[in-house]
Give the backbone structure.
Amino acid sequence: MNKRKFFLLPICLLLLGACNLNQPQSKASEKASEPEVSEPEASSIEEQTSSECEHQFGDWTITMIPTCTEKGEETRVCSKCGASEKRDVNPLDHKWDEGVVTTIPTVEAKGVKTFTCERCQATKTEDIDKATGIRVTFAQGDHYKVYIYKTKAYTTETPVEGYSCYARDENGNAVDFDANAALQPQVSFKVVCDEGYSVGLNNIKITGAAYKNLKQGPTVGDDGGPDLPDANHFRITKIQGDINVAITPINGEQTFPEVKFVTNHCSVVVYKSATISDENIIAEGPFYARNKDNGETVMSGGQIYFKVVPETGYVWNNGVTAESVDVNTLPFIYQKSENSGNKFKTADGVYNITKVNDDLSILINCIPEGGEADLGYVVTFVTEHCHVLVYQTQDYEFTPTAPVDNKTLTRTSKGDAAKYVAADSAAGIAEVKPQVNFLIVCDDGYTVAAANISISGTKGTEWNKCEQGDKDNNPNIWKITKIKADLTVTITAVAAA
Ligand SMILES: [Zn+2]
Ligand SMILES: [Zn+2]
């Protein structure tokens, strides 16, 4: 290794056309490769003209480029008589790349990593230790049995009854998780319940390492064929380490994820699948998440396609021509439950929510044509010796709006919509709890405590709580929750003790 280290630098420079490397080259050669490089002036140097000339040699230049394995040659020429000397240049040695995994290690067999020379494309391999494997352990309980499949091809494999197994790749090999490799350790299983019992996604709790998704059949695969054939079949995907799976069957039937629309001055047309035609309209609800291709109701990964039809004189102020919309900017609520839905697309006025794994409520608020959107309750801050910055949402991830003093604040975007939902609480979206989240900035020498904040309206009816601190316990951040009326919040900062 030393040899290569000392020798490579000068050679590289020579290859780049650098000239004056006589000294470094000799030095490096002496140290690095005495047997292979002739000393200048040594007997092996070929002299081609008279010995009377006091040669004045120029720089050594490469006259035969060395390869990874073969020697090269360099030459210098006397500027007076044209005599030349030659000497060997060491082979370069291979320049190995970082290597790629050409055989994935499994629990049963070692893997192989293949390195390629960046110069000559020669290859060499190294073994990779066997995978230690990812353990998936199912809790044993009443009213069900678990059958584990080796691959996700449920229909062709014989299930193995058991409560502990390895996560496996597409080919059924027990592997480790590797973020860089295209491994997708998964476990495919079937749950068979006693008569009268059933298991849904909500009845399965996974603890331990991270994973991508828990799916329940029926679903349809990428190729259009059955992926998870029926509601007894499940898959946990992209498992990153050991996990435990607890199953608690319920006594009764599971229902498909339902998508509920709450509308204001409009109606909604729902399509059975991605085919947007009058024949494909579902006449009336309840609406369930469906497979986008064949329109069948599915337990997980379902979709819903819909179009909004405003009443005469009303519009849905949402930019329906956009290729995609940010739900946070719309007077539109798309309530996600924990494992429900992402992507929210639109094309030709038809909206599409994908990956619906759980019940979903959607509120659509149409407004009078040419009118202002009624975005909810107005919270007015009246402040003394302080001012207030209002956050857009309760996650505090946005930059607060510009400082305002004694001004009416209308919460924007998501917050507005959330407030509106409260106004519409008769429609039964109980999960929505509109609130205002704000930062109190006191003048120098002043401070605010709960006693210094007074809120109009009836506590418990028009608003619920005024709380200090956010998730990071910042005492200057406050929130007023469950707002159900326009409010005036008067904050009088007092001189600090
Ligand atoms: Zn000469
Ligand atoms: Zn090479």
User: Anything to note?
Assistant: The pocket of zinc ion (ligand 1) is lined by residues 53, 55, 78, 80-81, 83 (CB under 6 Å). Confidence is low (pLDDT under 50) at residues 1-44, 319-340, 395-432. Residues 135-251 form one domain. The longest helix spans residues 2-15.
